[in-house]
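Q: Predict the bound structure with pyridoxal-5'-phosphate.
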Amino acid sequence: MACADTDHLAMYPVVQLDTTIFCAHIDGWAEAGHGPLPRRLAAAVRTLIVSGALPPGAAIPAERGLAAALSVSRPTVSAALDELRAEQLIISRQGSGTRVAEVDVAPAGPTLVERALGSATVNLAAPVAQRLPAGFDWAISPADLGAQLPANGYDPVGVVALRSLAAERFRSQGLAATTDQILITNGAHHAMAVAIGALVRSGDRVIVEQHTFGGILDLLDDRGAVAVPVPRDSAGIVPSELDRRLATEPTSIAVLLPTVNSPTGVATPAGRLDELAEILDRRGTTIVADEALADLTHGQRPPGLGARCRSASVITIESLSKSVWGGLRVGWLTARPELFDTLARQRARRDLGTAITSQLLAQRVLPALDDHLVARRHNLAAAATLATRLLHERFPDWGVELPSGGAMVWATLPLADATGFATYARQFGVATLPGSAVNTSRGADPHLRIATDVGDDVLRDGIDRLDRAWAAWRSA
Ligand SMILES: Cc1ncc(COP(=O)(O)O)c(C=O)c1O
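A: Predicted complex:
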């Protein structure tokens, strides 16, 4: 809790950081997080304050000097500081400048032994497969490439053989798609960039889930669009809330993760997908459906929105990144014929095609993908069970549900905002993703997303580290 009264600060020494040193502490702020520049700057300074790196009473460098040192305009700095003033994290007073308020900061850092143990950082922040899986032929010869069309290697739509396999895959999921309605992309994020680039204009309001993939928020920010959140419950997007938003918002575009949501790891049950499809059809919505995680349902994968909607226009996006390996950089989208050409042109304006080498490897993967997924789903479900059990044992005061999809556990901490703890825990050598990074409202958020697809030993090590960090955080 912060105290807004500067008199309280009289007892604290005025720590006066040189502007250059202050800037070095927030190095990388403009690329981190999401939102406009002032918000990113505010987030970086907030982290310094809540982690205790900037103690109460510390002076914030003058706005003009800070703006010059950061190469941004003075209004950018002012807006960032206004945000922190509104949160009572800093206080400005005529004559004594701006100082860090008296806040509940993170307790003192870990001991030397803990720091040493922490040198091997365990990354539980990124729920991604760590390496190319065995069982596929990954070797490429010049002769293999020679057999691919086009021979010159440029193809902004994708090679026909791969498009045909992707269309077949969609049809097996109940979605009508022909080869000429498939656009091969450099993964799902790229496909979303193409779709959002084609459909969304600056100032547009776009429906998204309250908690969603951070890349969607980045793309909407980049476009100058406004993300309008729809709440989720334990089964997925809340239908009545979606209906209400579509009725009241001047928008007919929604960017959703219908089958499996990140960061929550919730696989939407078929009945809920039907309810959502009925609403989207009735409202005539255009949906960008990010199905990058859809193959990671821990049980059977249900047909997605693309197969359920009748009149709503669904752009369905899939990717090999989560089911096979992110480094392939191969995904695809399908859309109705009337929209497809617009998307294909949008793509060709942005880049000149997906690497033929990756497209060749994807062609080898696709026919065997379902077999591969049997083991992958089994392993992910087992990792989720282990992670949930360990988290229940170690953190009885955290809320932890067994996820039904994806490669993560979504924990609810008994804190108003878990961001400070996530930052603090990094000192113990474990990285997790705080909910504030993927919350469309961008405010305080009590969740941590913990990746589970890291191998049992690494998972145990990471949870041990979180446990030590939590004990230190709570005891201070
Ligand atoms: C929900 C979701 N969508 C999209 C992506 C990006 O996928 P790709 O690597 O295919 O671009 C990710 C991966 O981080 C994701 O979790």
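A: Residues 112-132+371-475 form a domain with the Aspartate Aminotransferase, domain 1 fold (CATH 3.90.1150.10).
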